[in-house]
Amino acid sequence: MRDLNPVFIPGPTNMPDRLRAAMNIQTIDHRSPDFAESLQPMLEDLKKVFKTQHGQVFIFPGSGTGGWEASITNTLSPGDKVLVACYGMFSHRWIDMCQRHGLDVEVIECEWGTGAPADLFAQRLATDAQHSIKAVLVTHNETATGVLSDIAAVRLAMDKSAHPAMLYVDCVSSLGSMDFQMDAWGVDLAVSGSQKGFMLATGLAIVAASPKALAALEGARCTRCYFDFRDMGNTNKNGAYPYTPPIQLINGLKASLEMLFKEGLDNVFDRHFRLAEGVRKAVAAWGLRLCAQTPELYSHSVSAIYVPEGFNSNELTDHAYHKYGVSFGVGLGEMAGKAFRIGHLGALTDVLVLSGIATIEMAMKDLDYPIELGVGVAAAQEYLRSTSTAKA
Amino acid sequence: MRDLNPVFIPGPTNMPDRLRAAMNIQTIDHRSPDFAESLQPMLEDLKKVFKTQHGQVFIFPGSGTGGWEASITNTLSPGDKVLVACYGMFSHRWIDMCQRHGLDVEVIECEWGTGAPADLFAQRLATDAQHSIKAVLVTHNETATGVLSDIAAVRLAMDKSAHPAMLYVDCVSSLGSMDFQMDAWGVDLAVSGSQKGFMLATGLAIVAASPKALAALEGARCTRCYFDFRDMGNTNKNGAYPYTPPIQLINGLKASLEMLFKEGLDNVFDRHFRLAEGVRKAVAAWGLRLCAQTPELYSHSVSAIYVPEGFNSNELTDHAYHKYGVSFGVGLGEMAGKAFRIGHLGALTDVLVLSGIATIEMAMKDLDYPIELGVGVAAAQEYLRSTSTAKA
Amino acid sequence: MRDLNPVFIPGPTNMPDRLRAAMNIQTIDHRSPDFAESLQPMLEDLKKVFKTQHGQVFIFPGSGTGGWEASITNTLSPGDKVLVACYGMFSHRWIDMCQRHGLDVEVIECEWGTGAPADLFAQRLATDAQHSIKAVLVTHNETATGVLSDIAAVRLAMDKSAHPAMLYVDCVSSLGSMDFQMDAWGVDLAVSGSQKGFMLATGLAIVAASPKALAALEGARCTRCYFDFRDMGNTNKNGAYPYTPPIQLINGLKASLEMLFKEGLDNVFDRHFRLAEGVRKAVAAWGLRLCAQTPELYSHSVSAIYVPEGFNSNELTDHAYHKYGVSFGVGLGEMAGKAFRIGHLGALTDVLVLSGIATIEMAMKDLDYPIELGVGVAAAQEYLRSTSTAKA
Amino acid sequence: MRDLNPVFIPGPTNMPDRLRAAMNIQTIDHRSPDFAESLQPMLEDLKKVFKTQHGQVFIFPGSGTGGWEASITNTLSPGDKVLVACYGMFSHRWIDMCQRHGLDVEVIECEWGTGAPADLFAQRLATDAQHSIKAVLVTHNETATGVLSDIAAVRLAMDKSAHPAMLYVDCVSSLGSMDFQMDAWGVDLAVSGSQKGFMLATGLAIVAASPKALAALEGARCTRCYFDFRDMGNTNKNGAYPYTPPIQLINGLKASLEMLFKEGLDNVFDRHFRLAEGVRKAVAAWGLRLCAQTPELYSHSVSAIYVPEGFNSNELTDHAYHKYGVSFGVGLGEMAGKAFRIGHLGALTDVLVLSGIATIEMAMKDLDYPIELGVGVAAAQEYLRSTSTAKA
C-alpha cells in the first residue's frame, strides 16, 4: 500500500496520470516523419519555459548531470578558468566535474544556506582585468539547502565590470516550478532535467544555450562526443537524433509542456509558492529553522529544515520511510544528520502537501522531538485555505 | 492536478497501481484455455474472502445492484414474503427492488444510525408459524450511515425460532475490508462488488450462494436470464461464461486476491480498523457526532458524520470538491444536508487518510464551522502513530 | 510473447493504446460535476453512431446480453407475442431470453447462412390482423455465421402491412463497424456493447430506444430493475447513474467516440469492408466457402468459413491457438466443427489482418488441409494493396 | 490505427505489455532501501546475460552510444592506439568517437557485408611488437548490414600473437537476442542498451567490463565524469547512483531479465534464429540478396536486403510507412538507397514477422519490383511452421 503515498523528495516528483500515459506509448520509429515533425515544435515550446527567444534547446538522453557535462565540454577548453560559488551539494558537483575536465576552478566558499554571492562575484570579476575568467557557474535552486539564488543580481554584478564571462546556471530543480528568465537574466547555459518541474521520469537532460554559448562551440576544446551540441543540433534540424532517442520520455515531455501551458506558467509558479509557504508555516509552528538564511533565499520547490540540537535528521527520514512509507529528502553533505528536506515541487496539491506535513510531524513526535502534533498542519492549513484562489 | 488527490468516497476506492496494471491487459480470447483454466481457481480463492467452504461464487458483469437482482431472482418467487429492516439508503434499494420483482416485502422501519435489529427479527419470526417469510434481508455495512451490523446476531435470532428463512446479506462495502464469515454466520446469499474492498474499477457483481440458496433455484419463479445462477454456474464449470466476460476486470480480481492474501485478510481488517478509528478520533476532536449510534455499530469502511445544526453538509462536500479537488461522500437520503461521509476503505494508508481529514477540516473552517484547524488531524495523528505496527 | 499477437475473434477486439489509456484512469467521484457534465454530451454523441435523432441512448454496466434483457423487459409484457427469425447462434439466445421472460415467441426457422427473411416477415405480419405480434426481433450481424442482414428490407416488409410491431435489432457486432441507420430503418430498439466496434473492454451494454419504444415503457409489465430504462434515464438527466457507474469504461467510450469521429464513420466502415474483402479473397483462393450464402449477406466484421469435408474446425482453431498463439473464432452451434471464424472488426489494419490469414493458412497446412501456403495471403495482399486509399 | 502495427526497425523493438507495465511505475525514492536492495541483484543477473562471472556491469542513463563513450574514456588515454575494423555504419561511429577523444585510430577497411576480419587483426597484431595497440574494437552485430561477427575468432587471433590489447565489443543489437559469451570470448568491454534484446524503451546504456578493463581505470586519462565507472561502481555498491537513476527503466530491466530467464536464454536465441531464418527464406523467394555475404555472417536480429538494380530502397521504406503504416529500417551509410532492413529482434512472434514480410512484399509490388505476391510469405510460412517447437 505504501506505493500509494506521494513522495516528498525534491525530485523525481510525483507524476500525473496523464504524463504516465504519455510515457507509456508503444515503440514508434524514431526515423518516422511523425516523430521528426514533432521534435522541432517541442524544442520551440521548451524555449518558452526557459524564457529565451534566441537560445537553442538540446535534449540529451541522460540525467541532469549529463546536461552539466554538455554545457561545460561544449563551450570551454582545458585550462579555462571558471568561477564557482560553493554554497551547497550541487555546487560541489559542478566543481568536481569542472576539475575532471581540466578546468581551472576558482571557488568562492560561501556558508551553506546562503545563495549566489553577487557582490563577491562583482569584486572578483573587477580584479580580472585580463578576463581570464571564462565562466561564472551558479546554481539557481540549491536542492541541498533549499536556497533560491538571485540570478539577475549575478548578471548585474557581471555587467557592472563589463566582464565577458559566460553565465552558467543549474536550474534542474527550479525550471518549470519557479520563474526562470534566461534572456532577461543573461544566462548563457541553463541546465535542467525531466524529473522535476516537468513531472516526468528521470532520463532527459534539458539544456538551453545562448547565442554567445553557441558561438563558443567553435573554440571549445574539452573532449566531448555523446553530449556534443553540434551533433545534436545538426540532427535535430531534420527531426532526428545522433543516436536512438528516448521516444517515450520525449512524448512525455510534449504532454508535460501542454500541462504546464494549460495551467499557465505563472499559475504553476504561484502554486509552488503557496505549497512552499504552507510548508514554511508548518516549520515555523514547529519552532524549527530553515537552512535558507533569509526569506529572499527561500526555495519554492524544496525546504531544508534543521532538526533541533541533539537529534539526527537521518533517523527521522529513515523512521518516516519505514513506519509511514513516505520518502523525504535526507540531509546532504554538510547537512547530513542536521537537516531533512521536504520536496514540494512538480505534481503536488494543497491536499497532498498536508499529508507530508502530517507525516513528518508524527515521525518527529515518535522520536520525541519537542513538537506538538497538529500544529504544523494547522499552520499550513490556515495559510493554504486562506490563500487558495480555487473557485469554491 | 486535482486528479492526484485521493478520493474519500465510500467506493469506488483509490486503486493501487498494481491492480490498474492488471486491469490494463490487452484483449485475450475468453474462450482460450488460459482464461478458462484461471477462472475456477479464482472462484475458489474468492470463497476464502467470503469465508465459505460449501458456498458457490458467481461473478456477473455489472455493478453491485446487479448482484442483488441475481440473489433475489434466482432464489425467490413472486408473492414470496421477505423481511427487510430499513435503516439506511441501501436497505431502501433492496426494498424497491424486491417490490419490483413482485415480492411481498415486510419492512421493519428502524432509525437511521441503528443496525440490523436482531431482536425485532426474532420477535417477528417467532410469530410466523407458517413460515411464510422466505427470506430476511440485511445490509452488513450501511454506507449511508456508516453502520456495521451484527450478522451473527441476526442468524442467532433466526435460529432461535428455528425459522427456515434464508439470510441475504449486502456486503458490498464490507467484504474485503471488514471481517465477513459467510458460513459461520449462516449467510445464504452474500452480495458484493469489485469497487470496494477489492480496490478495482466498478463492473463486477460478486455473489456467493450457500447450498441452501442453490437448492432454492429449483422452485424460484422470479424471471431472470442475464443474472441466472444456473447459466453462470454451468458455463463457469468449463471455464466459460454465458456471454462475453469482462476479462480485464477478472484479471484485476485475480491480482486483487493476491494482494489481499499477501497482506493477510486479518491485517487488511486491522488496517481498516485503524484508519477508521483515526477518522473517529478526528470527529470527536471536532466535537461532531457520527450517524452510527453506538461504537458497536461503527463501520470501518465509511464514517457518516453529522454537521452541526444550521450547516448544510452538501455545501461542505461541494466546497471541498471545488476548492480542494477532493471528493467526500455526500449525505444520502435522510442524511442529505445533515451528514457528510468519509470513505476509508480499499487502498488507503495512514498518510492519505490524514490528507482527507486535513482537507475536510479546512473546508469546515472555510464555511465557519465552529472547529479549530488541526485538532482533528492531531487526534488522528496521535492515534495512528501510537497504534502503528509498522516496523520503524 | 504470444500476448503480442492480435486476436481474430469476432470481439472483444484488439484495443488501441489510446483507448487502453483512457480506460486506465484512477478513480474519480462519479457524483462529481466533472463526471456529470460529461455524461449527456457522450450520450448525444452516441446517437450519431446509432444514426438516430429522436432516440435515447442508455449505457448499462454489463455485457451485450444485458442490453437485450433491457430492451425486452422495458417494452414488453409477459404473454406478448414476438416474432423472431432464427438464423444463427445469437438469434437462439434472443429466443431463449424472451421465453424466460414469459413472452410468446414465434420462430421463423431459417437456414444458417441466410439473413433476416423480410419476405417471410411480410407474409406472417400480413396474416396478423389483430396485431397480436408486438415485436419483430432480428440480428443485424449474426456473428456465428458472418451474415449481415438487410434491416431496411425488414422495415419495408413491416410497413407494407402497416403492422405496428416494434423492430428490435441486435447490432452488437455491427455498430461502429458497419453502417447502421436507426432512424432511417425504423429501428425501435438497438442493442450494442463496448467490446466490438467501440474497441473497448467488455462491460458496457449500449442500447438505443426510439420514441415509440420509450412510449411502450408505460405498459410494459416484464419485471425489471437493474436494467430499467426509467431509472437510468431519470438519473442520467442529472449526470448520474442509478448505481455506481463504471467510470473507466465510460471514459474509454468517450475516447472511442473521438477516435471514430476523427477517422470518420464512413472511413471506419470502408476500412472494415476492405479488411473483410481481403479475408474473403483469401477464402476464395483457398477454395473454401463462407457460411454466408450470398455476397449481399457478407458481414464485414466477421467471416465464418466452412472447412472441407472430413476436417474438424475446432481442431483447427485449437491448433492455431496452441502452436501459433493466435485466437480465431470457433464454430458455434450448428457450425461447431464445421466452420471457423475470422473476426476482422474493431482496431485492425491491413497489416494485422494479413498476419491472421497467414497464421490460419499455416495451421491448415499443418493439419493437411488441401491448400497451398501463401495463396490466401497473396490474394488478400493483391486486394488490399490495390484498394488502399492511404497516401503513399 | 497504424500504431497497432508492429515495427520492423532493428530497435527499439516492440515492447511486451508486461514490460510496459513495469516501466510505468509511479515515482519511488531512489534513495530508499527498496530501490537500493534491488540494484545489486539485478546487476548480478545481468552478468548471466553477458555470460561473465568476473566482469562488472554498469548501467548508465543514456543511449547505447553513451556506453561506448564510457568504455573508451574509462580505459584509454589520449594518444593510445586502437585498432578498428570498419565494416558498417556503427564501426564508423566508434571510429569518430575514438578520434574525438584523442585516440590514435588505425582502421582496417573491410567491405560492407563482411564481418570482423580475424585474420587481418592477427596479421596486424603480429607486427605490433611494441604492443602500441591498446585495444581492438569490433561490432558483434552490425545493424547496418545485418552481419554477425565471430568474436571468438577475433579473440583467437589476438591470443595467437599473445598481444595484450583489450577487446571492445559493441553488442548493442545482439545481447539478449543472440548468444554472447563475454568470458569465453575474452571480451574486455561489452556495450549494450535497453531498447533491443531487453525489449524496453531507449534510455539505458548497459556496459560490462572485465577485470582487466577495470584494472585499466587506474591509468586511463581520457576525461570523463558522467560516464565514470568508478563513481558508478562506488555508489552502486551501496545501492545508489552518482546522480538520479531512471528508476522506471531500471524496474523495466528487472522485469525484462525475468522474462528472458523464464523463456530461457537458449530459447530466446532459438526464437530469434527461427524468425531470422523465416525472413531469409522470404528474401530468397523474392530473388533478393542479403548484404551479409555468407551464411556464417547472417545476423539473427536484423536482415539488410539489397533491392534490385534500378530501385531505391528509401522509396520502398517510405512507401511502406506512408501506405501501410509500418516502419522498416532504411539503408544506412553506403547502403542508403541500396538496401532496406527488417528488424526481427526483441518481442516478436512467428505471426508478427509474417505481417512484416507480407507488408514489404506489397510495398515492393506497388513499386513494380519484379516479385510475385505471396511467395516470400509462403517461404517463411513453410519454414516457420515446420520448425516450430510449440506444442500444438
Automatic annotation (TrEMBL), chains A, B, C, D:
<dbReference type="InterPro" id="IPR054863">
    <property type="entry name" value="AspGlyoxATase"/>
</dbReference>
<protein>
    <submittedName>
        <fullName>Alanine-glyoxylate transaminase</fullName>
    </submittedName>
</protein>
<keyword id="KW-0663">Pyridoxal phosphate</keyword>
<dbReference type="InterPro" id="IPR024169">
    <property type="entry name" value="SP_NH2Trfase/AEP_transaminase"/>
</dbReference>
<comment type="similarity">
    <text>Belongs to the class-V pyridoxal-phosphate-dependent aminotransferase family.</text>
</comment>
<dbReference type="GO" id="GO:0008453">
    <property type="term" value="F:alanine-glyoxylate transaminase activity"/>
</dbReference>
<feature type="binding site">
    <location>
        <position position="341"/>
    </location>
    <ligand>
        <name>substrate</name>
    </ligand>
</feature>
<dbReference type="InterPro" id="IPR015424">
    <property type="entry name" value="PyrdxlP-dep_Trfase"/>
</dbReference>
<dbReference type="InterPro" id="IPR015421">
    <property type="entry name" value="PyrdxlP-dep_Trfase_major"/>
</dbReference>
<dbReference type="InterPro" id="IPR015422">
    <property type="entry name" value="PyrdxlP-dep_Trfase_small"/>
</dbReference>
<dbReference type="GO" id="GO:0004760">
    <property type="term" value="F:L-serine-pyruvate transaminase activity"/>
</dbReference>
<feature type="modified residue" description="N6-(pyridoxal phosphate)lysine">
    <location>
        <position position="196"/>
    </location>
</feature>
<feature type="domain" description="Aminotransferase class V">
    <location>
        <begin position="27"/>
        <end position="307"/>
    </location>
</feature>
<dbReference type="InterPro" id="IPR020578">
    <property type="entry name" value="Aminotrans_V_PyrdxlP_BS"/>
</dbReference>
<keyword id="KW-0808">Transferase</keyword>
<dbReference type="Pfam" id="PF00266">
    <property type="entry name" value="Aminotran_5"/>
</dbReference>
<dbReference type="GO" id="GO:0019265">
    <property type="term" value="P:glycine biosynthetic process, by transamination of glyoxylate"/>
</dbReference>
<keyword id="KW-0032">Aminotransferase</keyword>
<dbReference type="InterPro" id="IPR000192">
    <property type="entry name" value="Aminotrans_V_dom"/>
</dbReference>
